[in-house]
Design a protein that fits this description.
The protein has a domain of 87 residues. The protein contains 5 helices and 4 strands; from the N terminus they run H-E-E-H-H-H-E-E-H. Helix content is 68%, strand content 7%.
């Protein structure tokens, strides 16, 4: 019997879930990306991500285009003074930064509550853990 040939070692998570590692002939292996991508857990993760990204992107695009269109076509409105040397156009421009920062903070909170636990679950099922 040839001792250099050994049977492939199956990871416990692979037997239990089908999300384990593809056998490369060594003890490490690579994640089975196709199995992970087809898993219900991954589909839930993608759905949660898309439910946040698309509406938030649409909101920001509409908000930004409002600023651009007013800037291009309604100079009189945008040049009205708010206080001192600050006009509505400057206020709208500064609000773009506020909106961007707010979206980042909202996404961070959403990811922490909804996405990160799902990613951890997928890692657990695939046998990829935090070290």
């Amino acid at each position: 019997m040839n001792k250099s040939v050994r049977p492939p070692a199956a990871m416990p998570s692979e037997r239990a879930t089908g999300l384990g590692f593809a056998d490369r002939g060594d003890d490490i292996g690579e994640p089975d990306f196709q199995a992970i991508q087809q898993s219900p857990e991954f589909k839930v993760l993608r759905k949660r991500l898309l439910w946040f990204v698309f509406p938030m992107s649409a909101f920001f695009l509409c908000w930004y285009m409002t600023f651009v269109l007013f800037s291009a076509y309604d100079h009189e409105f945008m040049s009205r003074k708010l206080f001192g040397a600050v006009n509505i156009g400057t206020g709208f421009g500064l609000l773009q930064f506020v909106t961007t920062i707010t979206i980042v903070l909202v996404y961070r909170r959403y990811a922490h509550k909804k996405l990160d636990p799902q990613v951890d679950r997928i890692h657990e099922l695939a046998g990829v853990g935090k070290k």
